[in-house]
Design brief:
The N terminus is likely disordered. The chain has about 525 residues and is α+β, with helices and mostly antiparallel strands. It has two domains: about 425 residues, no CATH class; about 100 residues, Sandwich (Immunoglobulin-like), CATH 2.60.40.1930. Helix 6 runs antiparallel to helix 12. It is globular, with a radius of gyration of 24 Å. The strands form five sheets. Strands 1, 2, 3, 7, 8, 9, 10, 11, 12 and 13 form a ten-stranded mixed β-sheet that branches. A four-stranded antiparallel β-sheet has the order 19-18-21-22, with no helix packed on it. Strands 4-6-5 form a three-stranded antiparallel β-sheet, with no helix packed on it. The chain contains twelve helices and 22 strands.
Length: about 525
């Protein structure tokens, strides 16, 4: 049996075998030492939190087109929100009346809405649509890996060798909850392994060493068992690291906006995420979830359309996100964290006779955090210009993914193409673009950015990319660690835009660390460490 087939049959997911605040946590892989050393600042500072809205959220009753209210009433009169109750964001757009927390975030500049998000030829099956969103596949492709898993493989190649290590002692990604996300599986296999039932897992491990053997025999089955044993030991170390991070925030002042434990499952999850971020965990990605959005019936209360199942869910979503953002501010972490919501599809424009909506296509996505460019991207969907009763595409969801990876994590074109399998347009979503210098300081360069070179380490060539928010004089040069300039890559005036340049190390340059410096304008200098390995 091949390793991939063995893992698929026995340990298809990565389950961290302990509970925190009553919620199970799943942990995914870590980086080998050499790669972690060259990417430590990037890997440890910025965080992305994904919120999966399971079931297919009705975006039309979530983000309401105030400028099309007559058409809105015509297509869903039995579930429509009264115009006087819609929470205004702009003259043309508003939110469901229970979403007061997210309205305040929008007004405070911490929320952006991307309208009309779907993909060409959308699938209306929950399972297939979810797989497409998690894998970033086309409608006619079945891909066993996920977009984040492929991204992590580019940033941290070599898994599972070299785990754990002192430079990166924490998991790269954590999922809280009972469901496993395809998005975190790598193209070469799972980022880590686990059992649905931890007890049976450890029974297997214990049995393998009966009879005094130091390790399983060097047979195909024995090697697979040794692989699982190693992952089990790492899971225990993950547990220790996560518990230590949680302990470090014990007694710290926290947001008072969180509801009591057990009243809002999403808020409970996000509070744990804030705890681990503030506790110093180097984890880059977190996935949490809120299910129940498959509102075929009872989406609203028959006597009051502002009540019902959908209102309960949106109130939990808004309340949890606003409490989380408030908590991050109190904990001093708000400039490090970007949040994103997604659902497998929206709902049909026309309501049904059961006070609900059926499976549809496009829906809005929310991105939140101190670093977002606040506002609304796109226009209110046209409720009278439909395709088979469904909303038309404005933005491909993979464009949102590409924008997050590029603008938030600094992924270059090669990394984006590897993660998303093809190129997608960038949507302007990030306003607070900062860079971590060699001393660990955050530099806010007015959206001028120097991205991680790729590949890194390299021999003899590597690609360096950067963004210019405005026209200006640009100088890109390479120094050795003694401060001697060894190459000038760019020296001249350039208009605003995205640029890529290749650095090829001459034969006289020895293996070791070098510094790439970008100067833009009179004073700005951004530096990245690059590693030449002969």
């Amino acid at each position: 049996m091949k390793r991939r087939e063995f893992i698929h049959r026995t340990v298809p997911v990565a389950l961290l075998p302990f509970m925190l605040n009553g919620l199970p946590l799943r942990a995914y892989g870590r980086a080998p030492l050499l790669d972690a050393m060259t990417k430590a600042a990037v890997a440890t500072d910025r965080v992305l939190v994904l919120i999966q809205l399971g079931g297919g959220n009705d975006g039309i009753n979530t983000v309401i087109a105030r400028d099309q209210y007559d058409a809105y009433m015509n297509v869903r009169r039995n579930i429509a929100i009264p115009a006087s109750s819609v929470l205004p964001l702009t003259e043309t757009t508003g939110l469901h009346p229970v979403m007061t927390g997210m309205q305040s975030m929008y007004e405070n500049g911490n929320l952006i809405i991307v309208q009309g998000v779907t993909y060409p030829n959308p699938d209306l099956s929950h399972f297939r649509a979810t797989d497409i969103w998690l894998s970033a596949a086309n409608y006619n492709e079945n891909i066993p890996s996920g977009w984040l898993g492929r991204y992590l493989q580019q940033e941290f190649p070599g898994y599972p060798e070299g785990y754990p290590n002192e430079v990166m002692p924490d998991p790269l990604a954590i999922q809280i909850g009972a469901d496993v996300s395809l998005s975190l599986k790598g193209s070469a296999g799972p980022m880590a392994v686990s059992f649905h039932d931890p007890n049976s897992f450890y029974q297997l491990i214990e049995k393998s060493n009966k009879g005094g053997e130091a390790e399983p025999p060097q047979t195909p089955a024995g090697r697979e068992l040794l692989y699982i044993q190693r992952m089990a030991m790492q899971s225990q170390e993950y547990a220790e690291q996560v518990k230590a991070a949680a302990d470090r925030t014990s007694g710290t002042a926290r947001s008072t906006l969180y509801p009591a434990s057990g009243q809002n499952y999403l808020a409970d999850q996000l509070k744990i995420v804030a705890t681990l971020i503030a506790g110093g965990l180097k984890t880059r990605l977190y996935i949490v979830n809120l299910y129940g959005f498959d509102t075929h019936s009872s989406q609203v209360d028959g006597g009051d359309t502002m009540l019902g199942d959908h209102a309960v869910l949106l109130q939990k979503l808004s309340g949890a996100i606003s409490a989380f953002q408030d908590d991050l501010k109190i904990l001093g972490q708000e400039d490090r964290v970007l949040g994103l919501t997604f659902s497998e599809f929206g709902r049909r424009v026309y309501s049904n006779s059961s006070l609900g909506t059926d499976h549809g296509t496009a829906a809005p996505m929310f991105l939140f955090g101190k670093g977002v460019r606040p506002g609304i991207v796109g226009t209110n969907p046209d409720l009278s210009d439909l395709t088979n009763g469904n909303l038309k595409l404005q933005f491909d969801f993979r464009s949102v993914y590409a924008s997050v990876l590029h603008q938030w994590f600094g992924a270059g074109k090669a990394e984006l193409d590897a993660a998303l399998l093809r190129s997608y347009e960038n949507i302007p979503i990030i306003r607070k673009s900062f860079h971590i210098d060699e001393q660990g300081n955050r530099i806010y360069p007015s959206d001028c950015r120097l991205y991680n070179n790729y590949p890194n380490p390299f021999n003899p060539s590597t690609k360096i990319s950067y963004d210019l928010p405005d026209d200006g004089q640009v100088l890109v040069q390479i120094f050795d660690m003694a401060g001697r300039r060894v190459a000038v890559l760019v020296n001249g005036y350039q208009p605003a835009g995205h640029y890529e340049v290749v650095f090829t190390a001459s034969a006289r340059l020895a293996s070791g660390a070098y510094v790439c410096e970008l100067r833009w304008g009179d004073a700005l200098a951004i530096r990245n460490k690059i590693l030449l390995v002969r």
